[in-house]
Amino acid sequence: MLPRDERRRLREIEQQLIGDDPKLARRLTETSLWRQVWAHMSPRTALAVFASFIAVLCLFLGEGGGVFTAGALAALVVISRNWQIHLD
């Protein structure tokens, strides 16, 4: 925890920023929905979402092998969510 005088100085800087450029201050304090979603998503879930997206993209492009491969990868990631790798 910061000492009292440093916290006071940070509050002063924050108030000065809000006074000088309220739009920038609002952008710095607000978080977007996408940031909140990605911040709480595990790497395994992100991989499953990405593989699903690639599968749909391949489906629209007419790439049957890509659809199968990406769909299988997404399904494997979702099914294996309880698996753990132990490195001894």
Show the helix and strand layout.
Elements: H1 4-20, H2 22-29, H3 33-39, H4 43-61, H5 64-79
Helix pairs in contact: 1-2, 4-5
Order of helices and strands: HHHHH
Percent range for β-strand residues: under 5%
| Total number of beta strands | 0
Mass-distribution shape: elongated
Q: Tell me the count of domains.
A: 2
Q: What fraction, in percent, of the residue positions are helical? A: over 70%
Provide a count of the helices.
5
Structural class by sheet pairing and helices: mainly alpha
Indicate the radius of gyration in whole angstroms: 22 Å
| Head-to-tail CA distance between termini | 37 Å
Largest sheet: none
Low-confidence stretches: none
> What integer is the average pLDDT?
80
Description:
By secondary structure, the protein is an all-alpha fold. It folds into 2 domains: 1-30; 41-88. Helices cover 76% and strands 0% of the residues. The protein has 5 helices and no strands. The protein has helices at 4-20, 22-29, 33-39, 43-61, 64-79. The radius of gyration is 22 Å and the shape is elongated.
